[in-house]
Each structure stands twice: as structure tokens, then as C-alpha cells.
Write a structure and sequence with these properties.
This protein is mainly beta and 215 residues long. It has a domain of 135 residues: Nucleoside Triphosphate Pyrophosphohydrolase, CATH 3.90.79.10. Strands 1, 2, 3, 4, 5, 6 and 7 form a 7-stranded mixed sheet that branches. A 4-stranded antiparallel sheet has the order 10-9-8-11. A hairpin with a 4-residue loop joins strand 5 and strand 6.
């Protein structure tokens, strides 16, 4: 996921600031990807925490009801991926550049295969004077919450029915405070925090359904 930035590999420890400042201040053009997201961090009561949203239920939204990082598709007038990430952050959770402690850092570009798009990933530290994040667009966002880094250590095998009869999808997810973090969002965060890459449960031995494991 990461470009050649010199950022360290392996488990990522340290404060929220130290995690963010591993990456450079770059502003790739909008043509670099079709969407952008922002990993907003803070030092919370449970350690380093990342800001997430629960998307609103919408039958026309392929990510309806899913947990996600604040972000969205590039608009023609954005000009850079960073502007896309900042615009979406403001629209979805009410935070702007003035609410961040320093400029966003460019983490890299990663494919969101489920949506057939490459996504630019940025990270930023929440300012101590920033207001509490809140739902900025109820049509898009149902809830806002903070996920502790250590919650991502737990992997749970989840099973969901597909659109076709008899079709079942199995994937690893993290359950936290009533929210299920999975797919692109979970993969990006685990990579950011330096957790091991997980094997595809469809093509390798996996724990029994519902079994938890720590990694």
C-alpha cells in the first residue's frame, strides 16, 4: 500500500503523532486514484484510536451500513487527493484542516477491489482544540466512533450470504462496540498499524466459524 517513503515496516508502536509523522507531506494529483480517505488519530483513554464512521443504510449505496474511514470519490474540482480526503472529512464528520494538528500525511494508494477503485490514503493527528467529530451528513453517515488500535488485534471469521442462492462469503473482521470492521477499511488500518497480513479464509485453513484469534 505504501509508496517508497522510508516509513518503517513491522509493528507500529508509539503515540498517535509518532505514527502519523512516519509519512511524508505529499499532495498527489487527483489522477493518482479515484477516491481518498483520511485516517484521523488521537491518543485516547484506550491508547491510540482511529476515527471511523458507520455508513447510513441506503439500498443504492454498495457500502450501505458498513464501517468506513471518512472519505469518498474524487470530484473534478478537487485538484489533489489530499483535497478530496479533507473535503470528505468535513462533509462526513464536520472536521476541517484547522481541526488537525499539522498537515495530512500521504500513506499511499491501495485498491478497494470491491468497488473497483484505487484509494489514496492520508493520515492526520486530531488537534487538542478540535470539536468532537459528529455526523455531518445523515444521508451518508449514521454514526461516528473511535476504534482503539489494539482492537484490530482480534480477528473473527464472519460468514455472510451472497446475492445468489447458496452463495456464502467468509472473511475476517473485528467486532467492537457493536460495529463490524472488515474489508478495505480493516485491511488499511491493520497495514497502517503494522499487523500481519491475514490469509484468505477461502483459500487457506481458517478457524471455525465464530472463533476468535489474536494476532
Amino acid at each position: 500500500m505504501r509508496p517508497d517513503t522510508g516509513a518503517p515496516t513491522g509493528p507500529a508502536t508509539g503515540s498517535a503523532r509518532e505514527l502519523v509523522e512516519r509519512f511524508p507531506t505529499l499532495r498527489p494529483p487527483s489522477s493518482s486514484a479515484g477516491a481518498a480517505v483520511m485516517i484521523v488519530l488521537r491518543d485516547g483513554t484506550l491508547g491510540v484510536e482511529a476515527l471511523l464512521i458507520q455508513r447510513a443504510t441506503n439500498p443504492e449505496d454498495p457500502a450501505s451500513g458498513d464501517v468506513a474511514l471518512p472519505g469518498g470519490r474524487v470530484d473534478d474540482e478537487d485538484g489533489s487527493l489530499e483535497r478530496t480526503a479533507v473535503r470528505e472529512l468535513r462533509e462526513e464528520v464536520g472536521l476541517g484542516l484547522a481541526d488537525l494538528d499539522g498537515p495530512p500525511r500521504f500513506v499511499g494508494v491501495s485498491p478497494a477491489r470491491r468497488f473497483s477503485v484505487h484509494v489514496g490514503i492520508f493520515a492526520a493527528l486530531l488537534s487538542a482544540s478540535a470539536p468532537a467529530p459528529s455526523v455531518g451528513s445523515p444521508e451518508e453517515v449514521a454514526a461516528v466512533f473511535w476504534l482503539p488500535r489494539d482492537a484490530l488485534r482480534e480477528s473473527r471469521l464472519i460468514s455472510r450470504e451472497g446475492e445468489r442462492e447458496g452463495e456464502t462469503f467468509r472473511f475476517f473482521g473485528t467486532e467492537y462496540d457493536g460495529h463490524l470492521v472488515w474489508g478495505f477499511t480493516r485491511r488499511v488500518l491493520r497495514d497502517f498499524f503494522g499487523f500481519p497480513v491475514e490469509e484468505n479464509p477461502a483459500s487457506s485453513p481458517a478457524p471455525a466459524l465464530g472463533e476468535s484469534r489474536l494476532v
